[in-house]
UniProtKB/TrEMBL annotation:
PROSITE patterns: ABC_TRANSPORTER_1, ABC_TRANSPORTER_2. The keyword Cell membrane applies. It is a peripheral membrane protein. This is Simple sugar transport system ATP-binding protein. GO terms for cellular component: plasma membrane. InterPro entries: AAA+_ATPase, ABC_carbohydrate_import_ATPase, ABC_transporter-like_ATP-bd, ABC_transporter-like_CS, P-loop_NTPase. SMART domains: AAA. Belongs to the ABC transporter superfamily. It comes from the Bacteria. One of its GO terms (molecular function) is ATP hydrolysis activity. CDD domains: ABC_Carb_Monos_I, ABC_Carb_Monos_II. Keywords: ATP-binding, Cell membrane, Membrane, Nucleotide-binding, Repeat, Sugar transport, Translocase, Transport. It is found in: Cell membrane.
Amino acid sequence: MPAMTAVPAIELRAIDKSFGDVHAVRAVSLTIRKGSITGLVGENGAGKSTLMSILYGLYRADSGEIRVEGERVEMGSPRDAIAHGIGMVHQHFMLIDSFTVLENLVLGAEGGFLLGRGMAAARSEVARLEREYGLSIDPDARIADLSVGEQQRVEILKVLLRGARILILDEPSAVLTPQETERLFRILGVLRDGGVTVILITHKLREVMAVTDQVFVMRQGEVVAERRTVDTTPDELAELMVGRKVRLGVDRQPARRGPALLRAEGLSLVDRHGIGLLDGIDLEVHGGEIVGIAGVSGNGQTELLQVLAGMRAPTGGTITICGRTFDAGHPGDPAERRALGLAHVPEDRLRQGLVAAFHASETSILGYQNEARFSPHHLIDRPAVRTYCAELMQRFDVRPPLPGLRSAQFSGGNQQKLVLAREISHEPKVLLVGQPTRGVDIGAIEFIHRELVRCRDRGCAILLVSVELDEILALSDRILVMSSGHIVGESAGGTASERALGLMMAGMKAA
Ligand SMILES: Nc1ncnc2c1ncn2[C@@H]1O[C@H](COP(=O)(O)OP(=O)(O)OP(=O)(O)O)[C@@H](O)[C@H]1O
C-alpha cells in the first residue's frame, strides 16, 4: 500500500459549471489522496470530462475552489495546471507524426527547461524516466511508426517531463488492445508507487476494479458516491452510475437467416505505397444475422468497413449489396449504397459520423437530407428536422435532448448515440457498424446492444466490427477473425471461446 500522506493531492470544493442551459457540473466536492489511483466513472454526459477539464484549466469553473497539495490555486489555463504539477493525457493524441519521440518530447516541454538544455538533456531525462517507471520507448523512433499504445506512452512521458505529479487520463484504454491496456496499468501502478497521483476516467468497470484504489461515481453533474475499490463491486458501481439495476448481456432468439444481402469476393486493397491492407477477403452476411469481425485494431477492419461503405475503392474483388454488384476500381459512392439500403456507423464518429459544427438536428439527417420529408421542394424544412431530431433523441435517450446544440457540445457517448440513432432509424437492409459502444456507458451499451439485435430480428444483415471481444461474443451469430488484412478464422457465435479467438487474433491456432 502507498504511504498515507496528510495533505491531499487534490481537493475540489463546490465546483460548479454550466454551458448555457446545461448544468454540467453541480457543486462537486472531492478529495484525492497523494500516490493513489482514483477512478472517475459515470454515464455519458455525467460531467466527468468537464470536471477534469476544469482541474486542468481547459474550462473555468463558474464557482468553487481548487486546492493542489493544500494550496488554493486558480486554473486559468493548462499552463497554470502544468505549473502546479498537473498533466492530462487526452484520448486524441497531440503528437507530430513525422517527428521522432525525442523531438516531440522537447516540443512538448516548450518554454521549459528541456528546450534550453537541448536534446542531450531530454535524452537523459527520458532514460531516467524509463528506469524509474518502466516507460520504455525508443527515443529515435518516428511517431508514425509507433503503435497506439507506444504513442500513448510518449504522451505520458511528455506530461511527466513537464514535471507532473498528478496525471489525468481520459479513457486511456478506449484505443488500446487488451495487452496494451495491461501494460498501461502496470505502468500506472509503478507511477503510483513512485508517489504520482493518477485520475482515470473510464467506462470499463473491470478496469476500475483491477487498477484503482478508490472510485467516484458521477451522475447528472453530481458526485453521487465515493467508494474504496475493495469495498465495492462492478454491479454496485453500475447501479450507482445509472440509477437502476443494469443487466449486461442480451437475450437473443436463434438467427432466422434470410438471403445473403452483403457479399464480398476476393476483396483487396493496396494503398498508394503498395502496402496490402486487405487481401482476398471473402464474406457473406445474410438478412437476420449479425456477423462479428474480431481482431486487434489495425488489421484491416477499418479499411474493410470503408470499402464496403463506398468510401474507398477496392483494388481487387467485388462487393454485392442487395443484389447489386460493384467491381474493383468503382470509385465508390456512399449515397448510391445508402439508396440500396446500406447504413454505416463509422468507427471514427468525430471525423466520419458527424460534423462537429453542425447542430444535432443537422447531424441527425446527415446523408439523408434529400429525403422528401426533410427537404420538400429541395429546401430543408428546419422545423420538421428539429421535430424529427427531438423524437430520435427521446427514443435513443440522447442527452441533453436539445436539437439546437452543436454536435461537438455533446459528450462522446451521446455523439455516438446520435449517429447510431440516425443510421438504425432508417431501418436499413444492411448495417455496417464499427465500435458501436466505444466510449459509451454501461446503460447505453445495454440499450445499443438491444437495438442491434432488434435490427437483426427485423431482417437486417449486420456486419459488426469491434475490438471488444465481449461485445463480439454477446452479439454475433457468426464470428470472423481478421489478422493482417486476411480473414484467418471463423467460428459459430454461440460456441466461440474468448481464448480461441484471442489466439486466432494473434495469428496462432488454438490448441
Ligand atoms: N463545450 C460545451 N458546450 C456545451 N455543453 C457542453 C460542452 N462540453 C460538455 N457539455 C455538456 O456538459 C455535459 C457533461 O459533459 P461531459 O463531456 O463532461 O460528460 P462525460 O461524463 O465526460 O461524458 P462521456 O462519458 O460521454 O465522455 C453534457 O451534457 C455535455 O453535453
